[in-house]
Design a protein that fits this description.
528 residues; mainly beta; Neuraminidase; 2 domains; 8-stranded mixed β-sheet; 5-stranded mixed β-sheet; elongated; chromatin regulator
Amino acid sequence: MSLQMVSAVSNSSLLQPGFSLLNFDGHVFFFGQKGWPKRSCPTGVFLLDIKQNELKMKPVFFSKDSCYLPPLRYPALCTLRSNARADEYQYIIHGGKTPNNDLSDKIYFMSLVSKTSKKITFQCIEKDLGGDVPEARYGHTINVVHSRGKSVSVLFGGRSYTPLAQRTTETWNSVVDCLPSVFLIDFEFGCCTSYILPELQDGLSFHVSIAKGDTVYILGGHSLQNNTRSPNLYKLKIDLPLGSPAVTCTILPGGISVSSAIVTQISDTEFVLVGGYHSDNQKRLACNTIVLEDSKIEIVESVGPEWTPDIKHCRMWFGCDMGKGSVLLGIPVANKQIIPDANYFYILRCKGTEEDKEEELITQTCSQTSSEDPGDSTPFEDSEEFCFSAEANSFDADDADTYNEDDEEDESETGYWITCCASCNIDMNTWVPFYSTELNKPAMILCSSGAGHWVHAQCMDLSETMLLRLSEANVKYFCNKHVDLNKGLQTPQKAVCLKKPPMKPLRKKKAMKLPTSTKKSFLRRLFE
């Protein structure tokens, strides 16, 4: 193993715990920033470009038919292939935390549409599921298994917020372990089925899961209910006959008590386990090699790298698998008061010397970052670490595609050209500037409803004065579709009583005085 330090020279504040890395054709992409995406990269997905030990981030584009993908931290993700030996694949992304700390229960498919020297375009599609749909969660894992020519996804573990009926003022934002149910998800028919197995008694999160063939191995993890890190090694075997699937669980010896560990694949049957925590105040510096052969698993301790003093003495660390046997590690800078949101970054290469040299040629053209504010995270808190999973058949032997840093970014196709609403008429081929502030991209504004989504200002019939006012004022905006719902949720404003001026009292009329002669005449007539 070799450890190499890299310098983040652009958007380094995005490199925080909770991010995810995706590897397409040897290129590594970052996903999962803490805040909402900026206009410079509305997709929230970046290419990680590493050259001469410098790490740079470059925006990635989405196709026009893509759905909106919020930045999600601590989701479960894995690769999905049409069959175990297929070369093309796409990523499955489920759950995670939004920048508002809401939990997502949605599932997305991310695939590579086109790749040139100037731009890379993804397609993101949201999938609808039926049946026993997993609740919103984070810190869980998802894997794909193959059996009898069919394939399903296996979802397990994670944490969620306390149910509404059990919340109090003091525990309103508290999280609990999800039930230890195993979910089988058939994406072909869009259905989910949950299984309760007697061997799985406690909920787990931030564990490691590795899939090979029809088997998923679950290692380590943290249980909030017992505040323990499980030493058990679970073997889930999935059988997919013509009828109902069969799920069995076996507890194997030789497990490791660890949480928030990272696993990376170095060959078809070998994986390396690195990082994580033994306890709340003890990092795990040891490394292990995991070998999967003939429905058997073997875990042996391996020689780790020469950790730097900064890594040995830091209170927390985080990272993610870059693919191809490499891991991106980050540790916070000691003095955050001088440089806020600053971290040191290292690339750990787990292959041999010759393989490392070949891998270096590839990884130097790919680099990625993550966005999560460590101010949210407590040292040695598993909920602030990322949960990693891998598939034994996701390893590609040779891939030498490169990315030229000197190529100018072409922003002609980006998240600006989405269909923001049913009446959206923004077309990249026919669009002309509508506002004086527009140049080569339409003006967009973020709708604050739910997880948030971007809409075109022109489609919302916003005047230029109102658009400028919204961009300068720190207020929430709701699009035409959600503005009525937001008004219904608002507390009515207290009516102001209008003061009425008091009425002037009527003056008493003075009695009319009669002359004396008239009075005498009246009395004389009265007594006559």
